[in-house]
Design goal:
Elements: H1 5-20, H2 27-46, H3 55-74, H4 82-88, H5 95-103, H6 107-116, H7 123-151, H8 154-161, H9 169-191
Helix pairs in contact: 1-3, 2-3, 2-8, 3-5, 5-9, 6-7, 6-9, 7-8, 7-9
């Protein structure tokens, strides 16, 4: 029996997306930020009947989806996150780092897909594959961000990059992606440690 959680998350996303679509800080940035998220959600919805992921995988994937949708509305630099910045004495808004960390959570569904399809029985190799896949996606996305920033108008380009004056922003973003992937991979190893391929962990 399929869990109702993915459908609930999908409905909540549609509502949240609709709210965040109203009066964003920059409409051009909002469009650029939401294109990959909408495509991702559409892909997950389209493949749901063929290959439903575990509830844990959908929750992990949803974290990034909701964080990125929020960042698209405000731009990541301007997300209301000041209380954290002040609490820890940061010199910049680190909401984007948290969003990048959540990108790494996709290492879990990547490993889960390969494992349940029986393409490999080595959980360690699956975890490593998930981590390397995330690092690859992170590097490609940073290149895409750079291309957009060059082609777009200066204001939109800077807002889309969200570097906030940090010359090492791209490298730190990729590191955050990778650390999230490592955490998600350890969680995969733990949740599938005593699970048969025909079973799905909750």
């Amino acid at each position: 029996m399929k869990s109702k959680l993915p459908r609930v998350l999908f409905v909540v996303y549609l509502v949240y997306f609709s709210v965040m679509a109203v009066n964003p800080y920059s409409r051009s940035v909002w469009i650029a930020e939401n294109i990959p998220v909408v495509l991702l959600v559409a892909f997950l919805a389209f493949t749901y009947r063929r290959f439903p992921f575990s509830p844990a995988a959908y929750v992990l994937m949803s974290v990034f989806i909701f964080l990125h949708t929020t960042g698209g509305h405000y731009t990541f630099e301007r997300v209301p996150f000041g209380f954290v910045t002040e609490l820890f004495g940061f010199s910049r808004n680190h909401f984007d780092r948290i969003a990048h960390f959540s990108v790494g959570f996709y290492a879990y569904p990547i490993a889960e897909f390969i494992y349940r399809k029986k393409y490999s029985e080595s959980r360690g190799l699956l975890a490593f594959t998930g981590i390397t896949a995330i690092f690859t996606v992170a590097a490609v996305y940073e290149i895409i961000e750079w291309i957009y920033a060059v082609m777009a108008d200066p204001a939109s380009g800077i807002a889309f990059l969200g570097s906030q004056g940090d010359i090492w922003d791209a490298q730190k973003d990729m590191l955050a992606d990778g650390l999230g992937a490592v955490c998600a991979s350890f969680y995969f190893l733990f949740s599938y440690k005593r699970t048969k391929k025909s079973e799905i962990p909750s």
